[in-house]
Amino acid sequence: MLGQLILSGIATGSLYALTAIAVVLVFRNTRTINLAQGDFAMVGAFLGIYFLKQLGFSYYTTVLLVVASTTLLGVAVEWLIMRPIAKSDWLTLFTATIGVFYILTGVMGWIWGRDTKAFPVNFDPTPIDLGGALISMGHLYNIGWALAIGVVLYWFFNHTKQGIAMRAVTDDPEIAHLMGIPVKFIVMLTWGVAGFIAGFVGILIAPIIYVSPEMMDEVLVKAYVAAVFGGLYSIRGAVIGALMIGVAENLAGGYLDSSLKTSTAFIMIVVLLAFRPQGLIGVQKRREI
Amino acid sequence: MSKVPITKAASNNLESSPKYAPVRALKQRYTRQNLIAVAILVALAILIPLLPQVKGWMLSQVSLVIIYIIAAMGVAVLVGFTGLVSVGHGGFLAIGAYTSALLTKYFGVDLIIGLISAMFVSAFLGALLAVVFVRLSGAFMAIGTLGFAFFVGTVVNNVSIFEGRDGIFLDNNVILGIRIEDFGFYYTSVASLLLVTLAVYCLVNSGTGRAFMALRDSENAAKASGVNRLLYRVLAFAISAGITGIAGALNAHVVNYVSAEVYADIWYSVDILIAVVVGGPAILFGPYLGGIFVVMLPFFLERLADFSFILKGVVLIAVLRFAPAGVGELILRPLRIARRRKLRSVAAGLRESEVG
Amino acid sequence: MTLLKINQMEASYGAITALRGISIEVPERSIVTLLGANGAGKSTTLKCISGVVAPRSGSIEWQGKEIAGRSPNWVTRNGIAQVPEGRRIFKDLTVSENLIMGAYTRKNKDEINEDLEQVLELFPLLKERSSQLGGSLSGGEQQMLAIGRGLMARPVLLMLDEPSLGLAPIVISDIFEKLLKLNEERGLALLIVEQNMKLALKVSHYGYVMQLGQVMVEGTAEELREDKKVYESYLGAPEKSP
Amino acid sequence: MGEHLRCQDIQVSFGGVRACNNLSLTVPRGKIIGLIGPNGAGKTTLFNVLSRFQSYDAGDVYFEGKLANDRMPHHMVSMGMARTFQNINLFKDQTTLQNIMTGAHGQIGNPISAMCWLPAARRRERQIEDYAIHVADMLNLTPELENEVGNLPYGHQKRVELARALASRPSMLLLDEPVAGCNDSETQELKELVFKVNREMGVTVLLVEHDMSMVMEVCDFIYVINFGANLAMGTPGEVRANKDVIAAYLGEDDD
Amino acid sequence: TDSPGITDKNILICSYQPMTGKVSSYFRMGKGADAWFKYINDNGGINGRKVTYRMVDDKYEPARTKSAVKRFIERDECFAIVSPLGSAPTSAVIDYIVSKKVPLIGAGTGAAKNLTIESPWVFPLYPSYFTEGAQLVRFAKEVFGASKVAVLYQNDPSGKTHMAGIKSVLEKNGVSITAAEGYEPKEVDVSSQVIKMKQSGAEAVICSCAPEPAAKFYTERAKLGWKVPVVNVFFGKSPKVAELAGNDAVEGIYFSTIFRDFDSPAAPIQQAKSILKKYYPEETPDAIHLWGFAGAQVFTEAIKRMGDGPITRERLVKTLEGIDNWTGSVVPSITIGEGNAPEHFIIKDMSFVLFKGGKFVDFSPPWMK
Ligand SMILES: Nc1ncnc2c1ncn2[C@@H]1O[C@H](COP(=O)(O)OP(=O)(O)OP(=O)(O)O)[C@@H](O)[C@H]1O
Ligand SMILES: Nc1ncnc2c1ncn2[C@@H]1O[C@H](COP(=O)(O)OP(=O)(O)OP(=O)(O)O)[C@@H](O)[C@H]1O
Ligand SMILES: [Mg+2]
Ligand SMILES: [Mg+2]
After folding, report:
1. A288 lines ligand 2 (CB under 6 A)
2. C163 with C55, same domain?
3. Ligand nearest to the backbone CA of C11
4. Does A179 contact C105 at a Cβ distance shorter than 8 Å?
5. What CATH number is associated with residue C53?
């Protein structure tokens, strides 16, 4: 039972992880807590259904198209909504993403209704046996993707010039501009990448949690908690945090009481923030004076 | 102590500082103007319900708006004047609601007692939360408070005394032994709002409020000015939570019913935050506009369903874009600018009167 | 030959006019200094050149090309680097990452690494701290980092805004020596804004004295050094900002 | 007279970096003491330790004869220590008056009664305002009282910071590079101010500065530190002539 | 004379719905009722009167519900409140509605208070979850022959009432609970619950789940290769379950039900389907829509039966109470008795279906035969 609980926890955690990565990405590059990150994925999932069912495209074409669309969506949100207020404080930026959240939820609900829809692709339901614990193909895919995207982004941020430039832009956009860094492009790129990840998330998660305008709410909240584990700055921290939450939830549900399951993450975050306000995976601290 | 001579030097100078007198006089005039405006509003709030055209349901709708305004006022103390963003005030709404509801149910207390106890219990728990989160700021504080709101949701959902999602049913509201209906409830909410507004006004114009704003604008400068961060954060949280607690209690008594289903929802907290941001967090009457916005928008758009969602998003973004400091600021800006400019120029003119 | 030629440039921040028609020239391989009291518009001049502020009118010619209104991006790519006022290093980037960002527009990796080595040689204090966050450095160390970052662009013209701010006396003379050396060896042109007039006129070839957005006096360093009146009338009295 | 502030064997390290390595100094009451040293020597760090903004690994800080190791920054302020910052730290969107009044925070008394506008609190508030105006007057800031400090020129901002520090009615002032970025005349003005505060108000001053003209002119006594350790100390004349100090800090060609 | 809300040309009735907010998917109930009344109006109304069906968004916040209902009754003068949605909202306003003597017909709620209120003005839609819970234990015992059952329930009043119903008859049936696992309505996955239930050695599972979580459970059950027999409560009986989890995972699962299925050839069901398609083309027909239909249709029938006489609230109640074995609606048969609950329930009986070969097929447990 323990092995199965942990494995299922990791599977769920990987659902949180991908979104958490995007959350961290947007936050560290634009100081924005993006509440619409889940909705990007939700839009992706709806589009996925549309392409697959209505237009009859193949799975891989659909993946391509969805990811392209959500990337564009991310870019459009940056361009139309975030850019004009880019200089505001983070509360304004945060509230603006709530606005985006409303709009996307509203538009999707308007077009496709509010009831839950099945995603027309199901992974092979026969589970894979990993030393007595079972996991389905869909979950394995998710874990794989979460790790792969995490590793790529981690490398990108810390070891490429563009990655460093992204962080420089967050730090001081004016000076970054002065260094010749194309600030606007980089901010746009950030949102684009956030949309890109969301496209994958949408397609991967849809067969597991089904598709509706609210599908991502729960995942998104958990993703935030996970992101805080990495101090909202560390991608590695976010992934580890997400997996920890997934496992802890399952263990709490399995060994304590199932009513505690969903609150586990929040109890964890309250305790964490009380004792380690900078997150679990500490980032080097700069001096303020 | 070498402190003494300074104090002396100062107190010699204390009585007058006549040089500054013109500015001070101007400031007093502005305060008087504000007071007159407020007095007119209060008179309207008291008199309008007496018009024959005003019906009970209107008052109960207005009461709902007032409840949101009070809740937003609580959040504004934190967001606007202390610079801490809370996405968890739904939690305090719940605490206020349940405090009053339980007291009413088991001890049959007066509504007034319910409100006051709700305020104190919320304030106490707010203070506790501040101690736990004393080192957080910015986005971390937002997510921490969000966690708190969920936590409260879980507690009321699972601890039996709160009767979970079945909810607690209350009898009619009683003040001083008299049952009150829509009218009575309206005046109760108006009075609460008035007192809360007054309290917040006094707060932000006192040394305590100055310390809050100091922490908001630069924590290091605040520390260097001798502001005790822990103490003032605790105070800020307590005041903020206490105010929202009042709103929570009113919210319970406007329907005479509380249910975990309602308070387990983070969108409650988000709605209050939106009210604050839309109205203008650092403006005393910002929450008034925000509360009206949040409650009345669905009221006017009620048949639009999904479309109202979209519209809400669009309006929100438009407000942020064109009135980044809130609609209140936008409305008041001309007045503020004019007053500031006048003050500045009078102060700058003090140079001339300088002797030596 | 003239490297940079500014003609009748005006600039403003909203209602506040900061520059009222200034003309400045920086010849190739030369060191030019801008002097003036607080609020005279020195920093604004540099910002106009680097494209951070768009001038309202007038022209900026760079190697014969008009560049007024170009983006900072473009300006940096084309050989002008600026060390901004007040350090403004990237606080959350490490020292070496800060330096790499200075070379953002350059392509050749080997050259960049070579320059990185050189800059770290130039500022041994930074070398010890190369993996530390920029924000954790002391004030003076940050200033050094800012200068080093400017050098990393391997510019044709380096603009320094108050480079001596917060530096120890021995470091100031050291850095100015090294800048002189770069000027002589590599032909790096320098446009320096300084509060410390004595120091600035010691190293530079030519100087401009500004007041309230205008150039009041110009001349070679010796001329300005000798001219007592310059000091008294333009650099002495404190300016009141409007 | 007697000692006002003393620190003994202060050690601070950040990861591998030793910022202070057994630093000790004594500040006698009523004097102006200079603290100089090369960049990264640990001056600001020591200031942060003394004002309790920074925790440290070992050593003791005594202020007004009392051990201050466990104090918080606001305790130090209430005990009479005020400071300014190397990088200006002000409430940018607030007016000069508000900034200075915040400096007098220690005088508001009980925050709850202040908040409730009790008569005593109102009286105090009035006193705080009067005193703030008095300080502003002293620093020639009266015309700027109703101006947002963010709009003020750099030199004025430095003065507002000083005014804020003075508003707490300190017995000791710690100044970190007060004239950096100021031109000669502004430097001159500040020198006079420091003298005035010291001589007329009896405030002890501890000063960090790289501008030698200022340091040598106003200080009664100077400590020199290097690599987080004491290097030398003495009167300005002695320090200026000290070989180690010249080699590490002043440089040969200082004139 | 007519009651408020009635004119020669018009009947005004109201309902509150969660049009936006977290449970807005339940707005389907309002859409169902609205589609029905649109259809009625397009076909000449009821005895010449058109129906104005006013829905208001309360966001599932009781405080908003209260002010909306006050508006209905005091300002708009609604004749009756028909097919509104929500346990918490209804709990908050039911006393008020009753005190104003306004009929409340077919509210979508299972909260005990709303079902047991002693008032002639309330006509609850479906029987209490308590009764259903008790029936499901019997089902597990008699159909599955299980004496050890596990329960998966939604952590809200519906689930908790089911639990209470289940517990009340355990002894009588000689059944014990091996694991009672709750889940939050929006929980991302229910794997730990399923694992725990499996470990507990249950011989059957009673699932008090809405369609989405039910689908998650069946997927998980299939994944673990756990062949335990399952019976699900009625509000999880939806084509959605099979759509979401795939037919294979749902194969062999029993559901209790209060409506005929959409696949049923019965005329009223096919009619509801086509009406919904016409007025809400983007909706996939679902049981929740039928909740709305049920209340709306009963109301329509009652008004129709009242003919040309004065239309009053009292007469409405009397007429409704006179409905006996009426088969014209989406509910197979409606009989409403006199007095108050439980006689006032619009739907009284549960029946059962089995999901087999991609379809729901009727199933009668031994005691019904
Ligand atoms: N961002 C800004 N917004 C508004 N006014 C500004 C801004 N920056 C500078 N100014 C104003 O423009 C004028 C010139 O400023 P500038 O910074 O160029 O002066 P400076 O010569 O560099 O002075 P300093 O020696 O203090 O650095 C000043 O009056 C200043 O107040
Ligand atoms: N948070 C930190 N993390 C790592 N190193 C630090 C940190 N804070 C200070 N340092 C290091 O400690 C040393 C002392 O710094 P400090 O700011 O005290 O120097 P300083 O004497 O004030 O120098 P300056 O004259 O340049 O302002 C510096 O080398 C600095 O890099
Ligand atoms: Mg400048
Ligand atoms: Mg320093």
Report:
1. no
2. yes
3. 1
4. yes
5. 3.40.50.300
